[in-house]
Design brief:
This protein is an alpha/beta fold. It is built from 10 helices and 12 strands. The chain has 3 domains: about 15-135, Orthogonal Bundle (GROEL, domain 1); about 145-195, no CATH class; about 215-245 and about 260-374, GroEL, CATH 3.50.7.10. The chain starts with 20 loop residues before the first helix and ends with a strand.
């Protein structure tokens, strides 16, 4: 009868089951192994690691999070330490190796406490008290840095790049980073807030890292829809349209019966007339640049080019919102409702060729603070 309450465990063949102190030691040793893997990369004299993946690709780095991302980790406790590095990288962008080594040392000290028969809950509570005290000490020894102290900010930025692949160009990139951050920083009481969504990074192959340029405006990875359109517009009046510059199709299936050639000609003429009216409405608003979130008919492209307007189609919604914020334009959903009040302003709209692609640069915006680009 006494055997009836004994739990029956069904495990896969070859499964190893640990419990109690053996399980704790196993977890700690696995986590320590991860910390030891990146320990020698710490500091200015830290050594590089050469990582070879299953395909034979070689990565040489001393960046802690890069090393841990490349390593295949199966042990659950070791995976938690990898997550520590990833979280640190996402939140701060630096200090991943230090965070992992610190966690490994805390676990190492925990072994002595466990062997002294101290319960893990008490150990964890002690570490929380230590973390609060450490935060208190850090606050007392920290030095406030003003947003106007560009030199200190550049030193901070360049320090975090030392272990990254961009270390060779860290001075120029630190200058760009500080300029971008200070451009979008907004004061809220005694604090400064930075919304990273207001920084746009556009990457193109070709050139070196030193060719990175800071643009105080918006970059749209698009080119004009017609080759005859202007490539440079000063004092741009920008219209943002969330509608197709095309003849609208009916919501239901419709059938048009044409019994006479003149009816066909009239049908085509009316279609052309509708597109011409759309373009005339855009022109009448005072716009000389149009960004359309949907399509632009081929005939409408011809009319827009004939009027000397710049037009881009299928612009991403996120880019439309950036343009609206930077230029002061309002996104309209009906072309008929477009007026001068909905237009945005920019000192210069220019199409530049980078590598094989053409991009549209909008600079000198009405409100350039929220949208620096690289």
């Amino acid at each position: 009868m006494g055997m009836g309450n004994t739990p029956i465990l069904i495990l896969k063949e070859g499964t190893k089951r640990d419990k109690g102190k053996d399980a704790q030691y196993n977890n700690i040793q696995a986590a320590k192994a991860i910390a030891d893997a990146v320990r020698s990369t710490l500091g200015p004299r830290g050594m590089d690691k050469m990582l070879v993946d299953s395909l034979g690709d070689v990565v040489i780095t001393n960046d802690g999070v890069t090393i841990l991302k490349e390593i295949d980790v199966d042990h659950p406790a070791a995976k938690m330490l990898v997550e520590v590095a990833k979280t640190q990288d996402e939140q701060a962008g630096d200090g991943t190796t230090s965070a992992v080594i610190l966690a490994g040392e805390l676990l190492k000290k925990a072994i002595d406490l466990i062997e002294s028969n101290i319960h893990p809950t008490i150990i964890a509570g002690g570490y929380r008290l230590a973390a609060a005290k450490a935060q208190e000490v850090l606050d007392s020894v920290s030095t406030p840095v003003s947003i106007d102290d560009k030199e200190s900010l550049k030193l901070i930025a360049s320090t975090s790049m030392i272990s990254k692949s961009v270390s060779g160009s860290r001075q120029s990139l630190a200058d760009l980073t500080v300029d971008a951050i200070t451009a979008i920083a907004e004061k809220d009481g005694d604090k400064w807030n930075v919304d990273m969504d207001n920084i746009q990074i556009v990457k193109k192959t070709g050139g070196s890292m030193d060719n990175t340029e800071f643009i105080q405006g918006v970059i749209i990875d698009k080119e004009p829809v017609h080759p005859a359109m202007p490539k440079r517009i000063e004092n741009a009046k920008i219209a943002l349209i969330d509608a197709a510059v095309e003849v609208q199709k009916t919501e239901i299936d419709a059938k048009i019966e044409i019994t006479d050639p003149s009816q066909m000609a009239a049908f085509l003429a009316e279609e052309e007339n509708m597109l011409r009216k759309m373009v005339e409405t855009i022109k009448a608003s005072g716009a000389n640049a149009v960004f359309v979130q949907k399509g632009i008919d081929d005939l409408a492209q011809h009319f827009l080019a004939k009027e000397g307007l710049f037009a881009v189609r299928r612009v991403k919604k996120s880019d439309m919102l950036k343009l609206a914020k930077a230029t002061g334009a309002t996104v309209v959903t009906k072309i008929e409702e477009l007026t001068a009040e909905e237009l945005g302003e920019a000192a210069l709209l220019e199409v530049r060729k980078l590598g094989e692609d053409e991009l549209t640069f909008i600079t000198g915006c009405k409100n350039p603070r929220p949208s620096p680009s690289f």
